[in-house]
Amino acid sequence: VSTLEIVSRTARETAPHMTVVRNGNRVMTCAAASARARGTTATVRDLFFNRPVQRKMLLRPGAIAATCERVRQLLARIALAHGNVGFSLRDVSRGQLLLETQPSVDMLGQLRQLFRSTPHRAAFRAVAAECSAVGARLSGFVCSADAGHRSAELQLLFINRRALARRDPLVRLVVSLLSRAAHDDATPSPRRTPGRRAGGASVPKSRAEAEAAHAAFVLRVELPRQEVALLHDEGGLFAHLADERAVHDFVKRAVATGRVGSGCARPASKSAGHADDAPTGSPDSRPRADEARESHATPAVPGGPA
After folding, report:
1. What mean pLDDT comes out for the span 73-78?
2. Basic and acidic residues: which segments have biased composition (predicted)?
């Protein structure tokens, strides 16, 4: 449905090369006419050139801006999954820079770069979640639903650097865990003033507000390739896990505690039984339920917006 021009140069190459794809068919591969630094530039032209109905729809007010925003969101997900690569997105026809990131291992810094112009400030007050086990690793940030957080855009879960669809069972599990934490915070307690979390952070004052709000999380999960198959469907990318129960238990512990190491459950193999039976360190290092609940309430990220 378009003409795609790709110009690329690797670190080992002295000159860039160019590939042109039109309507899904490669029409040309040759040396690029101009020099460029190491990296890749992809240029899309003549969008919907062979589909007059869709091309006419782009002439409607706001249609081009909406299309660019969808592309920006997609590229933002790719940038979060590959923090060691810098990305930029430009609307050449209007001369606008829509997105730009620098290579960084700091996920929080990438979040600020990608979403500084959007109303997702609540995500920057999230709790750092990091967990390691034999054959599995989870890292990222989680934040239970705030009354002022009305978008689900920052509900991102990556498995082996691939973003899962929001209907994937693992994504739904994290949403359920954080929504349950928001409901618990909205329930009055004799030891807690309604509407306040530990540390002074605000919480939804009612269950209705909690249900209307959205949790926010950006999590990266690394699993052995033989333990997961990533399949595309109409709704996006879905993960088929070899031992779904063990991985789900691992993610539950990691999200609930927000701690490193011994507080997390080790994914067990099918022959080993339930993941709760796996060793989790000494009894003193095992997180208690009240500690796990407090981990949702502590704004552990310094320097974030108030």
Report:
1. 86
2. 285-296
Let me know: does 131 contact 264? Beta carbons within 8 Å. Answer: yes
Strand, helix or coil for residue 195: coil
pLDDT computed for residue 221 by the predictor: 92
Does 83 share its domain with 135?
no
Predicted TM-score (pTM) of this structure: 0.64
Q: Residue 288 — pLDDT band, cuts 50, 70, 90?
A: very low
Q: Output the domain CATH number for residue 21.
A: 3.30.565.10
Q: State the pairing for strand pair 216-222/155-159.
A: parallel
Q: What is the pLDDT of residues 124-149, one digit of tens each?
A: 566 788 888 878 899 888 776 554 45
Q: Tell me whether residue 91 is in a domain.
A: yes
20, containing H or E segment: strand 17-22
Contact between residue 43 and residue 92 where contact means Cβ atoms under 8 Å apart = yes
Looking at 100, 129, 157, the residue that finishes a domain is 100
Residue with tokens 């890292």: 139
* Residue 237 C-beta-side C-alpha neighbours within 13 Å: 14
Q: Evaluate the CA torsion angle 100, 150, 238, 129 in order and state its sign.
A: positive
212/192 Cα distance (integer angstroms): 22
Alpha-carbon distance of 258 to 296, in angstroms, equals 8
Three-class SS of 36-74: CCCEEEEEEECCCCCCHHHHHHCCCCCHHHHHHHHHHHH
Total count of domains within the chain: 2
Pair of tokens at residue 192: 């807690």
| Inter-CA distances, 271 with 19, 29, 224, 275, Å | 50, 52, 17, 11
